[in-house]
């Protein structure tokens, strides 16, 4: 059993923990289970993910990168590696591997930072985003 709860403020968090989380935790502990409690910042939203892939697709369609067209997924690797100043290591069978960060594990703030980096990159290269997507709701804006 896995339980995930989004906490917004101290009052709401106290209510949720006292009314929902604690009874479940107590019952499992009483039954002899060992548990792991993880508290972490909220990861990127569905809306941020939709906006990310729309932006990556536009950049992929419009930017020639050193004589190559990169896929949206390859652009994701380029931007996440640039944001984290990651390292490049030799691959097992030749070539190189970029040690980047999974965007699915990024916090909302990190995803905002990456999308700002993408906007700056796109502006410098004349990329036109045909659809503007609201980063909060994921809705296409007029």
Task: Present the secondary structure layout.
Layout: H1 10-30, H2 46-62, H3 72-84, E1 87-90, E2 96-99, H4 108-124, E3 132-133, E4 140-141
Antiparallel strand pairs: 1-2, 3-4
Helix pairs in contact: 2-3, 2-4
Plain-language structure description:
The chain is 48% helix and 8% strand. The model has no long low-confidence stretch (mean pLDDT 87). It contains four helices and four strands. The protein folds into two domains: 1-39, no CATH class; 46-141, NinB (NinB fold, Orthogonal Bundle), CATH 1.10.3790. With 142 residues, the chain is mainly α. It has helices spanning 10-30, 46-62, 72-84, 108-124; strands spanning 87-90, 96-99, 132-133, 140-141. 11% of the residues are buried. The protein has a two-stranded antiparallel ribbon. It has a two-stranded antiparallel ribbon with strand order 3-4.
Helicity level, as a percent range? Answer: 40-55%
Return the structural class. mainly alpha
Low-pLDDT ranges: none
Count, helices: 4
Secondary-structure arrangement, i.e. CATH architecture of the largest domain: Orthogonal Bundle
CATH topology of the largest domain: NinB fold
Q: Report the order of strands and helices.
A: HHHEEHEE
| Number of spatially distinct domains | 2
Corresponding CATH superfamily of the largest domain: NinB
CATH class type of the largest domain: Mainly Alpha
Gross morphology is flat
Question: Major beta sheet, specifics?
Answer: 2 strands, antiparallel
Distance between the first and last residues' Cα: 42 Å
Average pLDDT score:
87
Rg (C-alpha, Å): 20 Å
In what order do the strands lie side by side in the largest sheet?
1-2
């Amino acid at each position: 059993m896995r339980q995930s709860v989004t906490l917004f403020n101290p009052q709401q968090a106290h209510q949720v923990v006292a009314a929902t989380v604690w009874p479940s935790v107590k019952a499992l502990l009483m039954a002899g289970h060992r548990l792991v409690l993880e508290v972490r910042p909220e990861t990127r939203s569905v809306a941020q993910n939709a906006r990310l892939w729309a932006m990556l697709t536009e950049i992929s369609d419009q930017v020639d990168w050193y004589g190559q067209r990169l896929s949206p997924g390859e652009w994701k690797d380029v931007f996440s590696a640039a944001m984290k100043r990651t390292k490049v290591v030799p691959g097992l069978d030749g070539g190189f591997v970029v040690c980047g960060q999974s965007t699915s594990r990024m916090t909302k703030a990190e995803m905002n930072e990456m999308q700002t980096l993408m906007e700056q990159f796109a502006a410098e290269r004349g990329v036109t985003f045909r659809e503007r997507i609201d980063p909060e709701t994921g809705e296409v804006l007029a």
